[in-house]
Design brief:
Blueprint: H1 9-20, E1 26-33, E2 44-52, E3 55-63, H2 74-80, E4 92-95, E5 105-109, H3 122-139, H4 155-159, H5 162-175, H6 185-195, H7 198-205
């Protein structure tokens, strides 16, 4: 059975026209939900074929729906900053309304399948690090005013999600005892102890300049 659509076609059309300009003619030709393997973030995805002024476009619709944790502000980045970013990012065709503290959808260019993590060369990994450094350099001391400051003004709120994340990771480890451990129980205990002392982080972050962070930067993302 196909997954139910969680975003109406009219909403997608309105978001695309707002982003592209009301003078453009927008039509949704086909939508199909994607089934994401267990263990993902819980985000909702669709393949969307649309037409803008008669031009056929294949796009990917994404709605972030993490089971726990703060908003990712992904749609905000695509709508406002992806075009000027030094990172290679899919073209944005439209987003849902940007509301404080809420996730919204983004309709982006559907790219060809990339290489899997195990297929990357050493040079490709180094280039990914250089790309991230370029992003940090571009916004060093000039982070967008509209974005939250989770490591300063919103530090306690951001740290409040850590215990739930640790519980979820531990439950996965309990369910799959043969799964390789990327952190020891002692490391989790230390993390929880540190999160109970936000002043440790606040003092460290006060000595650092602000920049724009990716938040989930790895070779498959």
């Amino acid at each position: 059975m196909a997954a139910p659509q969680v975003i109406s076609t009219d909403e997608i059309v309105a978001g695309v026209r707002e982003h592209q300009g009301d003078a453009h003619e927008v039509r949704i030709v086909k939508r199909s939900a994607l089934r994401i393997p267990r263990g993902g973030t819980g985000s909702y995805f669709e393949r969307v074929r649309l037409e803008i002024d008669g031009r056929s476009i294949r796009a990917l619709l994404k709605l972030g729906r993490m089971a726990g944790g703060p908003p990712t502000h992904e749609a905000f980045f695509y709508r406002r900053y992806s075009a000027e970013s030094p990172l290679r990012a899919p073209r944005c065709f439209g987003t849902g309304p940007l509301l404080p503290g809420r996730e919204t959808w983004v309709l982006m260019e559907q790219l060809p399948r990339g290489k899997g993590v195990s297929e990357w060369t050493l040079e490709q990994t180094r280039q990914a690090v250089r790309n991230l450094a370029a992003l940090h350099a571009k916004y060093l001391g000039r982070a967008p005013d509209e974005l939250p400051r989770p490591f300063t003004t919103g530090l306690e709120d951001r740290l409040s999600f850590v215990p739930q994340g640790v519980r979820q990771i531990r439950s996965v480890f309990d369910e799959y005892p043969d799964l390789p451990r990327f952190a020891s129980e002692r490391a989790f205990d230390l993390l929880l102890a540190l999160c109970a002392r936000p002043e440790v982080f606040r003092e460290a972050f006060a000595r650092s300049p602000e920049t724009l962070l990716h938040g989930d930067y790895h070779r498959a993302n």
